[in-house]
From TrEMBL:
Name listed for the protein in its UniProt record: Shikimate dehydrogenase (NADP(+))
Residue span, Quinate/shikimate 5-dehydrogenase/glutamyl-tRNA reductase domain: 125-193
Organism: Undibacter mobilis
Coiled coil: none
One GO CC annotation: cytosol
Underlying gene: aroE
Source species taxonomy: Bacteria, Pseudomonadati, Pseudomonadota, Alphaproteobacteria, Hyphomicrobiales
Domain Shikimate dehydrogenase substrate binding N-terminal, residue spans: 10-91
HAMAP family with a match to the protein in the record: Shikimate_DH_AroE (MF_00222)
Any matching Pfam family: Shikimate_dh_N
Organism superkingdom: Bacteria
Function field: Involved in the biosynthesis of the chorismate, which leads to the biosynthesis of aromatic amino acids. Catalyzes the reversible NADPH linked reduction of 3-dehydroshikimate (DHSA) to yield shikimate (SA).
C-alpha cells in the first residue's frame, strides 16, 4: 500500500459479519478512489488504545459496530446525534480532533424517504417495537421529523421508561397487549428488535390499522420478515432493514473521501446476493411467533 493511500475500517468484536467493507469497496470502485477498507476485530479491553492511536495506524476514520458504539462516543468529540442516541458508529478526523456521529438516524430517515416517499406527511403517531440502541436512533429520528406521539412497546418496561427519560414527553411507554389499539391510530410501525431475524422468533401482529400506515423493519436477514410480508399482503407500504444499512453508510464515505455516494439498485443487488446464503432456512429453527399479550385484568 502506498503511503498516501487512504485506509478506513470497521471495528467490532467480532467484525466478520459486517457488510460495510462490501458497501464501501463498491463505492470506491464506482468513484475511482484508491483506498482500502478493512475489518478490525478488537476486544473491548483493547478498544480505547486502538481508537486513541487510530491515525498512527494509518486510518482516516472508521465505522464502529457492537459492542463498541457507546465507548466510541465517549472517546471522541461526539455530535448532537451521537449524544442523543448514546452511541457513535462513524468516526472521522477534523484536523487534530477525532469526531463522531450516529448515522443510523439519517440512514433510517433516508431509507423511508426513498422507499415510501411522503411517509411523514401529517404523521402524528408512531409505534416503535423495542427499546435498545436501534430504538433510540429511531425515536430521535422521529422527533427530528416532528412526530408528536411515539409509542415504545417493549417486553421490559424499564428500558422503555429509559427512552422516555432520554427523549421526553413525546414518548409513551406501552405494553404488547395494547398493540392493536395503538396501531388503529398510527401512521408508522417500526420493528427495532431482533425478532424476525433468521433463527429468532417471528412477530405476529394483527395489523388492524389505516391503509396509509407504513411498516418498517430494521432486520435485513431475511430481507422480508413475517411482519413485512403481512404488511405487503394487506397492501401497506414497507421499508426493509437493508435500505437503512445502505443509507447509513453514505455520510461516512462522504466524510472520509469528500464524495457523496448514491444508494442504487445495483448496490442493493450486490448486498442482497451476499446476504442470500445467510437467509436460507435452517431445519433446526422452528417458525416460532411472538404475539402481543393481552393486558392483565384488574383485580377487584
Amino acid at each position: 500500500m502506498s503511503d498516501n493511500r487512504k485506509a478506513v475500517c470497521v471495528v467490532g468484536w467480532p467484525a466478520g459479519h459486517s457488510r460495510s467493507p462490501l458497501i464501501h469497496q463498491y463505492w470506491m470502485k464506482k468513484h475511482g478512489i484508491d483506498a482500502e477498507y478493512r475489518k478490525e476485530a478488537i476486544p473491548p479491553e483493547q478498544f480505547a488504545d486502538f481508537i486513541t492511536h487510530l491515525r498512527e495506524r494509518g486510518y482516516v476514520g472508521c465505522n464502529v459496530t457492537v459492542p463498541h458504539k457507546q465507548a466510541a462516543m465517549e472517546l471522541t468529540v461526539a455530535d448532537d446525534r451521537a449524544k442523543a442516541v448514546g452511541a457513535a458508529n462513524t468516526l472521522w478526523f477534523d484536523g487534530d480532533k477525532l469526531r463522531s456521529t450516529n448515522t443510523d438516524v439519517e440512514g433510517f430517515l433516508a431509507n423511508l424517504d426513498q422507499t415510501t416517499p411522503g411517509w411523514d406527511r401529517g404523521l402524528e403517531s408512531a409505534v416503535v417495537l423495542g427499546a435498545g440502541g436501534g430504538a433510540r436512533a429511531v425515536v430521535y429520528a422521529l422527533i427530528q421529523r416532528d412526530v408528536q406521539r411515539i409509542h415504545v412497546v417493549n417486553r421490559s418496561p424499564e428500558r422503555a421508561e429509559a427512552l422516555r427519560a432520554r427523549f421526553g414527553a413525546r414518548v409513551n411507554v406501552a405494553q404488547w397487549g395494547e398493540m392493536t389499539g395503538l396501531l388503529g391510530g398510527a401512521g408508522l410501525l417500526v420493528n427495532t428488535t431482533s425478532l424476525g431475524m433468521v433463527g429468532q422468533p417471528q412477530i405476529d401482529i394483527n395489523l388492524r390499522c389505516p391503509m396509509s400506515m407504513v411498516v418498517s423493519d430494521l432486520v435485513y436477514v431475511p430481507l422480508e420478515t413475517k411482519l413485512l410480508a403481512a404488511a405487503r399482503d394487506k397492501g401497506l407500504r414497507v421499508a426493509d432493514g437493508l435500505g437503512m444499512l445502505l443509507h447509513q453508510a453514505v455520510r461516512g464515505f462522504e466524510l472520509w473521501f469528500g464524495v457523496k455516494p448514491e444508494v442504487t439498485p445495483e448496490l442493493r443487488k450486490v448486498i442482497e446476493e451476499d446476504l442470500a446464503p445467510m437467509a436460507a432456512p435452517k431445519p433446526a429453527s422452528p417458525d416460532k411467533t411472538v404475539k402481543p399479550r393481552a393486558p392483565k385484568k384488574p383485580r377487584g
